[in-house]
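Please think about what follows:
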Amino acid sequence: MLENPELLREMVARSGAHGTNEESEESVEHLCAKCDNYSKEWGPVADDIWAHQKHYRKSYENYAKENIESAEKLEFSDVKESKKENRGA
């Protein structure tokens, strides 16, 4: 929320969320307005830091889809035999 108050505004608008603190009710606009200036000032700094760092983390790959496609290529008996081996039968 601190760096991206506009995202909280959007989530609240889309979901229809509302506050539940009856003692100290605060609208999403009032809450997010407290973060707007910080977000505007921090954005360029964060972008610069990100641009000058090496990123070693691999992107997400959906291995489950590959496994399903591979299994579909096998004969039914091969799949049945493979399941037996995995169970130690």
